[in-house]
């Protein structure tokens, strides 16, 4: 039964919305981003590229957290594994330059998926859900960070590794800002649209059902731990993809790419966009990045305080996410107006 | 045989440290079931109480008394303002306490600066134990941790507060019927956990770099001490500290400390897979 | 229907919670030729027994066979894939999904539009197809869950109090519907409503304090003194 979950053709299952608002927004965003290089060049474009990769990272978290309701507090582990995989492969091994980027990316993505499978197996098959999962993944980032800092011969320790070559494949190089921007955009677009497509099908329904009542889903014949584990591994692999491309784009890795603060920030990116919407993760990342630019230019050390305050507000003021909060307010305003008439 | 004595003493020191930092966690997380990611910052607050007290000319012993009071008051205030609203929802607890943790770290760093604080602990010399000279302060730490542990157990097993707390954890309705106000009990329990963490901070300060971020090192470990030991039982903390502390000490002889810590955490995850209720469940 | 349905047979099945024995030494065969009912007072162990058959609870001792397959202690999802479907006592539907989406999750194969319409009309939910399950009234939740179980194309249908909270008409409809399943699906129903059980003419098993105190046709059961004492006599 599990094998038929993914390959249901659109004719067989009435997808929730054939082309709902979320997909229209997603396609609109991708189209707008396609023409962005006509207006922005050089260094600015590379920082937009980094935002796209962070958005991919946020998307990876939303794929798991948003769809299963289980919060991973350790997603920077996978982003970092992708980045370090890329860096270590291209710096410590003499691999044919034609394929080194590909090998590095595969190594990072493979490592991340493997770690997610092993850790996920231990906790998801052990029946651990919810808050305990969050603590274990939090510890995972700490462990990964300890290793990144404490094993200098491989990871470069505190200072990290410099000299990661730009992404290239069989002689095609993505070294200049425009091509590396488009590389990031294509990967993000492909991941976003395919995640939205898969999640609008039966798998998305089953994951929602698991959030409602996991035991019931089991008595319907599904191996729920397996489904959760696979979603977790896919999410980890996507995070590593973002990390690997980020390392290649910026030419270095450092321990803060595999640290708790990054794990925290990505939660905010997703929460700002509204978790579970997938496209919201991309929008949230852009909004928070823009805010961070503004605030950091005033006072750099204020940023963690802003994040901390946001977490508290998130729970106490807008538990459904800021987007839903605004929508509710707008709806209420409209209703009040109608009542007045 | 010669090597065994410093090894055991090192292990005992680490076990005592873990015991100290985890007792507050055992109350707040183990008994009250609140995931408090700001636990490390209560430890930091304790250490910085020592910094302030010594800055004002006071000594270590004064700080040892002041820190739990400061921790209790801050804990009480935070419980009333924030924590009381998130008992029902673990995800909310995680987000709020993590936000709190980030804010506390940054505020401490803004006030005191980023570089490690200089403090002086008592008992600078060493003591001869079976022919091995061992720092006197560490021996004091071991003794103090054991005494605090025994006292905490007594409070929770024997006093009215301990009984009320356990009653209100079992069923807040029952507790109300018995004339116990669960809100008050929760607030006092959370504050006691914060006070114990702050006390641990003072004791740790002479052994470690005192910075705004020092607490985070103990967050995951104290969670695992409680989980491995068995959430819901204060005595489980001793079992958890014993296991994690001695493993980490043993491994540190062979591999870098940070990697040893990582390995022990990984091992703790495996232990939980096979014994989800911990070694000494309630 | 040429599918032969294996016998569901329980041998000395027991389950304890701590020192408390909720089910003790139950041995019984359930086949498709007749409808099967389990009756018994509150706390008799009826739901516990179904939980063991469908794998949500492990058996403490004894064995459960479905044909040649030993399913006692098998995981719930595997048992479900053998064709054993379950309706829980508390209606367990997915509250955040719509009726149609609930069926998409429960169906063993992707549903065609026709199959979907057929199930919807079987359980009388055609007009509610896009309603979110949390907004359905209790009776319709019961039917939704029965429909979900049917959409698995089960060989065995375990129903825990399917008529609880239903109106007289709805109860009669349920009884009529169950009778159409005779011979095609092995049906095991837990019921409190004696009129309903009589109406079904089911093979009936009486549980009391976790033990089978009688088993046979409903007439036999009604005339059994022990059963009268502990259960029917109370009417
Ligand atoms: N998970 C459990 N842990 C402990 N005791 C349980 C558990 N599940 C059921 N019991 C006990 O086992 C006994 C049988 O319960 P069960 O739910 O099987 O009864 P039932 O016959 O279905 O009753 P009802 O008609 O009320 O549904 C009850 O005394 C119940 O309290
Ligand atoms: Mg029951």
Automatic annotation (TrEMBL), chain A:
<feature type="transmembrane region" description="Helical">
    <location>
        <begin position="181"/>
        <end position="205"/>
    </location>
</feature>
<keyword id="KW-1133">Transmembrane helix</keyword>
<dbReference type="InterPro" id="IPR043428">
    <property type="entry name" value="LivM-like"/>
</dbReference>
<keyword id="KW-1003">Cell membrane</keyword>
<keyword id="KW-0472">Membrane</keyword>
<dbReference type="Pfam" id="PF02653">
    <property type="entry name" value="BPD_transp_2"/>
</dbReference>
<feature type="transmembrane region" description="Helical">
    <location>
        <begin position="46"/>
        <end position="65"/>
    </location>
</feature>
<feature type="transmembrane region" description="Helical">
    <location>
        <begin position="21"/>
        <end position="40"/>
    </location>
</feature>
<feature type="transmembrane region" description="Helical">
    <location>
        <begin position="131"/>
        <end position="151"/>
    </location>
</feature>
<feature type="transmembrane region" description="Helical">
    <location>
        <begin position="298"/>
        <end position="318"/>
    </location>
</feature>
<feature type="transmembrane region" description="Helical">
    <location>
        <begin position="72"/>
        <end position="93"/>
    </location>
</feature>
<feature type="transmembrane region" description="Helical">
    <location>
        <begin position="99"/>
        <end position="124"/>
    </location>
</feature>
<feature type="transmembrane region" description="Helical">
    <location>
        <begin position="226"/>
        <end position="246"/>
    </location>
</feature>
<feature type="transmembrane region" description="Helical">
    <location>
        <begin position="266"/>
        <end position="291"/>
    </location>
</feature>
<dbReference type="InterPro" id="IPR001851">
    <property type="entry name" value="ABC_transp_permease"/>
</dbReference>
TrEMBL record, chain B:
<protein>
    <submittedName>
        <fullName>Branched-chain amino acid ABC transporter permease</fullName>
    </submittedName>
</protein>
<keyword id="KW-1003">Cell membrane</keyword>
<keyword id="KW-0029">Amino-acid transport</keyword>
<feature type="transmembrane region" description="Helical">
    <location>
        <begin position="222"/>
        <end position="243"/>
    </location>
</feature>
<dbReference type="Pfam" id="PF02653">
    <property type="entry name" value="BPD_transp_2"/>
</dbReference>
<dbReference type="InterPro" id="IPR052157">
    <property type="entry name" value="BCAA_transport_permease"/>
</dbReference>
<feature type="transmembrane region" description="Helical">
    <location>
        <begin position="194"/>
        <end position="216"/>
    </location>
</feature>
<keyword id="KW-1133">Transmembrane helix</keyword>
<feature type="transmembrane region" description="Helical">
    <location>
        <begin position="12"/>
        <end position="38"/>
    </location>
</feature>
<dbReference type="InterPro" id="IPR001851">
    <property type="entry name" value="ABC_transp_permease"/>
</dbReference>
<keyword id="KW-0813">Transport</keyword>
<keyword id="KW-0812">Transmembrane</keyword>
<keyword id="KW-0472">Membrane</keyword>
<feature type="transmembrane region" description="Helical">
    <location>
        <begin position="90"/>
        <end position="112"/>
    </location>
</feature>
<comment type="similarity">
    <text>Belongs to the binding-protein-dependent transport system permease family. LivHM subfamily.</text>
</comment>
TrEMBL record, chain C:
<dbReference type="InterPro" id="IPR003593">
    <property type="entry name" value="AAA+_ATPase"/>
</dbReference>
<dbReference type="InterPro" id="IPR003439">
    <property type="entry name" value="ABC_transporter-like_ATP-bd"/>
</dbReference>
<dbReference type="GO" id="GO:0005524">
    <property type="term" value="F:ATP binding"/>
</dbReference>
<dbReference type="InterPro" id="IPR027417">
    <property type="entry name" value="P-loop_NTPase"/>
</dbReference>
<protein>
    <submittedName>
        <fullName>ATP-binding cassette domain-containing protein</fullName>
    </submittedName>
</protein>
<feature type="domain" description="ABC transporter">
    <location>
        <begin position="8"/>
        <end position="234"/>
    </location>
</feature>
<keyword id="KW-0813">Transport</keyword>
<dbReference type="InterPro" id="IPR051120">
    <property type="entry name" value="ABC_AA/LPS_Transport"/>
</dbReference>
<keyword id="KW-0067">ATP-binding</keyword>
<dbReference type="Pfam" id="PF00005">
    <property type="entry name" value="ABC_tran"/>
</dbReference>
<keyword id="KW-0547">Nucleotide-binding</keyword>
